[in-house]
Amino acid sequence: MRFVLDQNMSRKPELSEHLENGHEIVLIDEFFVEIFKATDPVQMFNKNTKIIREYPSSIYYGKSRGELVRQEIVNGAPLSKEDLICEENTQEIRNLILLNYSNSRINQFKLEAKKREEESLMFSEEYIRGISAKADLLDIKQYRDAPELLKSHMYDVSIAVLEMVFKEKYGDSFNAEIFKFK
Protein backbone atom coordinates (compact mmCIF):
# COMPACT_ATOMS: atom_id res chain seq x y z
CA MET A 1 0.00 0.00 0.00
CA ARG A 2 1.16 3.54 -0.72
CA PHE A 3 0.64 6.36 1.70
CA VAL A 4 1.56 10.04 1.77
CA LEU A 5 4.42 10.81 4.13
CA ASP A 6 4.32 14.00 6.18
CA GLN A 7 6.82 15.66 8.50
CA ASN A 8 5.27 14.16 11.63
CA MET A 9 5.73 10.58 10.47
CA SER A 10 9.11 11.00 8.77
CA ARG A 11 11.17 10.39 11.92
CA LYS A 12 8.97 7.83 13.71
CA PRO A 13 10.17 4.22 14.08
CA GLU A 14 6.79 3.02 12.75
CA LEU A 15 7.84 4.33 9.35
CA SER A 16 10.63 1.73 9.16
CA GLU A 17 8.12 -0.99 10.06
CA HIS A 18 5.76 0.12 7.28
CA LEU A 19 8.56 0.17 4.72
CA GLU A 20 9.95 -3.19 5.89
CA ASN A 21 6.47 -4.65 5.39
CA GLY A 22 6.53 -3.61 1.74
CA HIS A 23 4.51 -0.41 1.96
CA GLU A 24 5.52 2.54 -0.20
CA ILE A 25 5.48 6.26 0.48
CA VAL A 26 4.52 9.20 -1.67
CA LEU A 27 6.18 12.53 -1.01
CA ILE A 28 4.27 15.64 -1.99
CA ASP A 29 5.30 19.27 -2.27
CA GLU A 30 4.31 20.11 1.30
CA PHE A 31 6.90 17.65 2.64
CA PHE A 32 9.69 19.71 1.10
CA VAL A 33 8.11 23.12 1.69
CA GLU A 34 8.17 22.45 5.43
CA ILE A 35 11.83 21.42 5.24
CA PHE A 36 12.75 24.60 3.39
CA LYS A 37 11.07 26.76 6.02
CA ALA A 38 13.58 25.51 8.62
CA THR A 39 16.53 27.62 9.70
CA ASP A 40 18.89 24.93 8.37
CA PRO A 41 17.06 23.16 5.53
CA VAL A 42 19.96 20.79 4.77
CA GLN A 43 20.07 19.52 8.34
CA MET A 44 16.25 19.23 8.43
CA PHE A 45 16.27 17.40 5.08
CA ASN A 46 18.85 14.91 6.31
CA LYS A 47 16.95 14.26 9.54
CA ASN A 48 13.58 13.90 7.84
CA THR A 49 14.89 11.52 5.17
CA LYS A 50 17.15 9.39 7.39
CA ILE A 51 14.68 6.48 7.57
CA ILE A 52 13.45 6.56 3.97
CA ARG A 53 17.04 6.70 2.70
CA GLU A 54 17.21 2.98 3.52
CA TYR A 55 14.27 2.23 1.17
CA PRO A 56 14.84 4.23 -2.05
CA SER A 57 12.72 1.97 -4.26
CA SER A 58 9.75 2.56 -1.93
CA ILE A 59 9.83 6.34 -2.42
CA TYR A 60 7.58 8.05 -4.98
CA TYR A 61 6.89 11.69 -5.71
CA GLY A 62 3.36 12.89 -6.35
CA LYS A 63 2.30 15.29 -9.06
CA SER A 64 1.03 18.71 -7.98
CA ARG A 65 -2.67 19.05 -7.17
CA GLY A 66 -3.25 21.47 -10.03
CA GLU A 67 -1.66 19.10 -12.53
CA LEU A 68 -3.75 16.18 -11.20
CA VAL A 69 -7.03 18.08 -11.41
CA ARG A 70 -6.29 19.28 -14.94
CA GLN A 71 -5.40 15.71 -15.98
CA GLU A 72 -8.60 14.35 -14.41
CA ILE A 73 -10.70 16.98 -16.19
CA VAL A 74 -9.08 16.11 -19.54
CA ASN A 75 -9.59 12.37 -18.94
CA GLY A 76 -13.15 12.86 -17.71
CA ALA A 77 -12.59 10.14 -15.12
CA PRO A 78 -10.77 9.57 -11.83
CA LEU A 79 -7.04 8.93 -12.14
CA SER A 80 -5.38 5.62 -11.32
CA LYS A 81 -2.80 5.47 -8.55
CA GLU A 82 -0.08 5.30 -11.20
CA ASP A 83 -1.32 8.58 -12.71
CA LEU A 84 -0.68 10.33 -9.38
CA ILE A 85 3.07 9.75 -9.52
CA CYS A 86 5.61 11.89 -11.37
CA GLU A 87 8.25 9.39 -12.56
CA GLU A 88 10.82 12.06 -13.45
CA ASN A 89 10.61 13.74 -10.04
CA THR A 90 10.52 10.35 -8.32
CA GLN A 91 13.97 9.56 -9.75
CA GLU A 92 15.27 13.02 -8.82
CA ILE A 93 13.96 12.71 -5.26
CA ARG A 94 15.46 9.25 -4.84
CA ASN A 95 18.82 10.60 -6.02
CA LEU A 96 18.50 13.62 -3.77
CA ILE A 97 17.79 11.48 -0.73
CA LEU A 98 20.54 8.96 -1.46
CA LEU A 99 23.27 11.45 -2.26
CA ASN A 100 22.69 14.04 0.47
CA TYR A 101 23.05 16.85 -2.04
CA SER A 102 24.91 20.01 -1.15
CA ASN A 103 23.33 23.33 -0.19
CA SER A 104 23.42 24.54 -3.80
CA ARG A 105 21.39 21.56 -5.07
CA ILE A 106 19.01 21.86 -2.11
CA ASN A 107 18.54 25.56 -2.91
CA GLN A 108 17.74 24.73 -6.55
CA PHE A 109 15.20 22.18 -5.42
CA LYS A 110 13.82 24.70 -2.93
CA LEU A 111 13.11 27.12 -5.78
CA GLU A 112 11.34 24.38 -7.74
CA ALA A 113 9.24 23.40 -4.70
CA LYS A 114 8.35 27.04 -4.02
CA LYS A 115 7.16 27.43 -7.60
CA ARG A 116 4.98 24.32 -7.26
CA GLU A 117 3.63 25.57 -3.93
CA GLU A 118 2.67 28.91 -5.50
CA GLU A 119 0.99 27.12 -8.40
CA SER A 120 -0.88 24.91 -5.97
CA LEU A 121 -2.01 27.89 -3.90
CA MET A 122 -3.10 29.74 -7.03
CA PHE A 123 -5.06 26.69 -8.16
CA SER A 124 -6.70 26.37 -4.72
CA GLU A 125 -7.65 30.05 -4.67
CA GLU A 126 -9.08 29.89 -8.17
CA TYR A 127 -10.98 26.71 -7.34
CA ILE A 128 -12.51 28.24 -4.20
CA ARG A 129 -13.35 31.44 -6.06
CA GLY A 130 -15.03 29.53 -8.87
CA ILE A 131 -17.02 27.11 -6.76
CA SER A 132 -18.01 29.84 -4.31
CA ALA A 133 -19.21 32.10 -7.08
CA LYS A 134 -21.29 29.26 -8.48
CA ALA A 135 -22.79 28.74 -5.05
CA ASP A 136 -23.50 32.49 -4.75
CA LEU A 137 -21.63 32.50 -1.46
CA LEU A 138 -19.17 35.24 -2.29
CA ASP A 139 -19.13 38.60 -3.90
CA ILE A 140 -16.05 37.81 -6.00
CA LYS A 141 -15.19 41.48 -6.49
CA GLN A 142 -14.14 41.83 -2.87
CA TYR A 143 -11.43 39.19 -3.38
CA ARG A 144 -9.96 40.21 -6.73
CA ASP A 145 -7.28 42.39 -5.17
CA ALA A 146 -7.34 40.87 -1.70
CA PRO A 147 -5.90 37.33 -1.75
CA GLU A 148 -5.18 37.48 1.99
CA LEU A 149 -8.86 38.14 2.65
CA LEU A 150 -9.77 35.18 0.47
CA LYS A 151 -7.33 32.93 2.36
CA SER A 152 -8.84 34.01 5.66
CA HIS A 153 -12.30 33.09 4.38
CA MET A 154 -11.36 29.82 2.65
CA TYR A 155 -12.27 27.62 5.60
CA ASP A 156 -15.73 29.12 6.04
CA VAL A 157 -16.38 29.15 2.31
CA SER A 158 -15.24 25.54 1.94
CA ILE A 159 -17.53 24.41 4.76
CA ALA A 160 -20.45 26.36 3.30
CA VAL A 161 -19.91 24.85 -0.16
CA LEU A 162 -19.57 21.32 1.23
CA GLU A 163 -22.69 21.79 3.31
CA MET A 164 -24.63 23.04 0.28
CA VAL A 165 -23.48 20.15 -1.92
CA PHE A 166 -24.16 17.47 0.68
CA LYS A 167 -27.54 18.91 1.66
CA GLU A 168 -28.48 18.86 -2.01
CA LYS A 169 -27.46 15.22 -2.20
CA TYR A 170 -28.63 13.95 1.21
CA GLY A 171 -31.32 16.42 2.23
CA ASP A 172 -31.74 18.61 5.30
CA SER A 173 -30.84 15.77 7.64
CA PHE A 174 -27.18 16.12 6.64
CA ASN A 175 -25.00 17.37 9.51
CA ALA A 176 -22.14 19.61 8.30
CA GLU A 177 -20.51 19.54 11.74
CA ILE A 178 -18.46 16.52 10.61
CA PHE A 179 -16.48 18.85 8.33
CA LYS A 180 -15.70 21.41 10.99
CA PHE A 181 -12.40 21.12 12.81
CA LYS A 182 -11.59 24.69 13.75
Structure description:
With 182 residues, the protein is mainly alpha-helical. 59% of the residues lie in helices and 5% in strands. It contains eight helices and three strands. It has a three-stranded parallel beta sheet with strand order 1-2-3. Strand 1, helix 1 and strand 2 form a beta-alpha-beta unit. Helix 2 crosses helix 6 (103-134). The longest helix has 32 residues, at 103-134. The chain is globular, with a radius of gyration of 19 Å. The protein starts with a strand and ends in a 12-residue tail after the last helix. The relative contact order is 0.09. The mean pLDDT is 77.
Q: How would you summarize this macromolecular structure in one to three sentences?
A:
The mean pLDDT is 77.
What class, by secondary structure content?
Answer: mainly alpha
Spatially, the strands of the biggest sheet line up as 1-2-3
Strand fraction? 5-15%
Measured between the Cα atoms of the first and last residue, the distance is 31 Å
**Low-pLDDT segments, ≥5 res:** none
Largest sheet: 3 strands, parallel
* DSSP E strands, number: 3
List the topology elements:
Blueprint: E1 2-4, H1 13-20, E2 24-27, H2 29-36, H3 41-48, E3 59-61, H4 65-75, H5 87-99, H6 103-134, H7 141-144, H8 147-170
Parallel strand pairs: 1-2, 2-3
Notable characteristics:
three-stranded parallel beta sheet; 8 helices; 59% helix; 182 residues; mainly alpha
